[in-house]
């Protein structure tokens, strides 16, 4: 039907790590750690880590308007990211690809590109609006 559309994750970016499940166990509980290690899906872990690397490089937390989607295809990782200002009128999107082994560097490069393209000003605007709100 024409009023419905399938949203592609590369275009409709969600929060970093959205939908990923993490299981944490006590370090001394090796038996349980071994049991839950079977739940690990390496590609998903790598993709989620790359998304979180972008978030960390942007010096952000869960309250900044940042969307990131990482996807492994073959032996390469592609990361799509965007940041928006408070009212959503200014939107900056960037994408970067690298071999999987360079995922952290790829994420950092992408974050730098977002910051240089106006993302730093957006983050400053958000920080200043919170100061105004809290005073």
TrEMBL record:
Q: Which residues form the Porphobilinogen deaminase C-terminal domain?
A: 47-115
Single GO cellular component annotation? cytoplasm
Task: List, in alphabetical order, the GO biological process terms annotated in this UniProt record.
Answer: heme biosynthetic process
**Which Pfam families does the annotation name?**
Porphobil_deamC
Q: Name one GO molecular function term.
A: hydroxymethylbilane synthase activity
Gene3D superfamilies documented for this protein: Porphobilinogen deaminase, C-terminal domain
- Name the PANTHER family for this protein: PORPHOBILINOGEN DEAMINASE (PTHR11557)
**What's the protein here called?**
Porphobilinogen deaminase C-terminal domain-containing protein
Organism this protein belongs to: marine sediment metagenome
Q: What is the lineage of its organism?
A: unclassified sequences, metagenomes, ecological metagenomes
């Amino acid at each position: 039907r024409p009023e419905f559309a399938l949203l592609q994750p590369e275009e409709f970016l969600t929060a970093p790590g959205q939908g990923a499940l993490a299981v944490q166990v006590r370090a001394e509980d090796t038996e349980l750690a071994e049991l839950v290690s079977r739940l690990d899906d390496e590609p998903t872990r790598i993709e989620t880590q790359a998304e979180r690397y972008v978030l960390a490089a942007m010096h952000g937390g869960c309250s900044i308007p940042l969307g990131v989607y990482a996807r492994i295809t073959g032996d390469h990782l592609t990361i799509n990211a965007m940041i928006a200002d408070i009212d959503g009128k200014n939107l900056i999107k960037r994408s970067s690809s690298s071999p999987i082994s360079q995922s952290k560097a790829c994420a950092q490069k992408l974050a730098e590109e977002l910051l240089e393209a106006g993302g730093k000003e957006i983050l400053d605007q958000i920080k200043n609006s919170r100061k105004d709100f809290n005073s």
